[in-house]
Amino acid sequence: MPNQSTFSQLQILIEKECSKASFACGGSITIKEDSTAKTKATAQSSVPINLFWASPKDEEIHRLTFPAQSTESSVSQLANDCTVASFGRGDQDVVDTDYRRAGKLDTTHFASNFHPTEFGILENIEQILLPAMGDKANDESHSRKLIADLYKLNVYSEPSGHFCNHVDTPRDTTQIGSLVVCLPSKFEGGNLLVRHGGQEINFDWSSKSASTVQWAAFYSDCEHEIKTVTKGHRITLTYNLHLVDMMGGAILSPRRIVDPDTLPPYKLIKSMVGKKDFMTEGGILGFFCSHAYAHTSGDAARRLPKNLKGADIIIYSIFQSLRYEVSIRPVLDEQVEFTYYKGRLVDAQMVSNMPRDMSGANGNRKRWENLRGRKSTKRQQRIADLVGTELHKEIVASASQVETDLEELLMIEEDWPNEPIEDIHWLTSAKHYDTALTYTAYGNEPSVGYKYSYAAILVTIPAWEKRQRQ
Ligand SMILES: O=C(O)CCC(=O)C(=O)O
Ligand SMILES: [Fe+2]
Fold first, then answer.
1. 148 lines ligand 1 (CB under 6 A)
2. Where along the chain do its domains lie?
3. What residues flank ion ligand 2 with Cβ within 5 A?
4. How far apart are CA 62 and CA 461, in angstroms?
5. Using CA positions, which residue lies closest to atom 2 of ligand 1?
6. Between 187 and 91, the higher pLDDT residue
7. Alpha-carbon Rg for the chain in angstroms
8. How much is the pLDDT for 84?
9. CB 28 within 8 A of CB 180
10. For labelling, which of 67, 293, 347, 412 has a CA lying 20 to 30 Å from the CA of 420?
11. Which residue CA neighbors atom 9 of ligand 1 most closely?
12. What ligand 1 atom has the least distance to the C-alpha of 85?
């Protein structure tokens, strides 16, 4: 058995915190130095970025190309051309360099060829941040999209550029968050700390600052601060993120550019699987998806996992980045108790209407124990989840007779490709079911029956011995 306390820690995190915890995310884009390349940009790389600005002093135009050397004269020119950045205090705009020491340019005075939409950044932010927003963003009858509205260019310079803890002032009711894009130029310090509901994410961009575009997005109600820049210049573009109504459906993006280690539960999960007493012998962790995906429709296998949202994409991508086997599978809403006798299946009982919600989980566990506890020296009783081998369209079947549980199980075996898996450690409750199988039976009494499934993320955790070597 896995260690119960780490287990319940994860259970609490996933169930209560995970979707709430998706308050921020970030990623990076490398610069392709080869300017002869035909394609302008890919999801993970960009051509060098040009920034043009008009000096507010004399309106003279300058250009800077990133990655930039922090010693370049154009970098100091840019820093010098900035005016002192103010910030909102109450309903006033104030300058107080103890609180914020930074330079800024307004959008009237600069332009660049960097556009966050080119790298799928907005789609990724939508996938991670919008689902946790509840109905405001998830009303299916509206197709809501994020747009990024360029707001300022900021320069935080050595030895004392910083911004103390604050919450951004939304400029209107459609603004839901902020996006910060850090242009490549070497600096030290300048960590961006983002806090929400007692959790904190530390975006430490210094080590890759010389060569990589790094970005972070967070909800408007997050407190955040920028630690002192001790060396170089930290040059950023900030955008206001607005949620707007769109005509037409959302376009699915196959691109994944979020770094899973910027996601809030990453640390806990990583340290948990790093412990010997957590699932020492290995096993399977199960997470019922917390959002609805119509997982038994014809295009489900094409849409998932890339279309996962909120807590689901967080769990999927974290375990995938830790290189464990992760899959999305349909799981029947009933478990099966098998009885083996002399190595043969002699009886099977559907354990119907199992309360799959976590409030009933302990009840489930008890029931399992009771079933197992019915000691029998000759007969072996086992309980398993019926897990579909893959996502596919709902199946319509007919069978000669489906009157007993065993007949029902044989029918499922025949028509709904699955493998029974014992001892899945379920960590979330089942919420959204779809029809998996419709069958007509021509027995004494012709009848029509239905079987339902839930989409679940299954993660194979190798035994400790093996995990150590990975
Ligand atoms: O540069 C950053 O990381 C954040 C900037 C910021 O908080 C702001 O401009 O309000
Ligand atoms: Fe801010």
1. no
2. 48-245, 260-353+379-468
3. 168
4. 55
5. 180
6. 187
7. 27
8. 96
9. no
10. 293
11. 238
12. 9
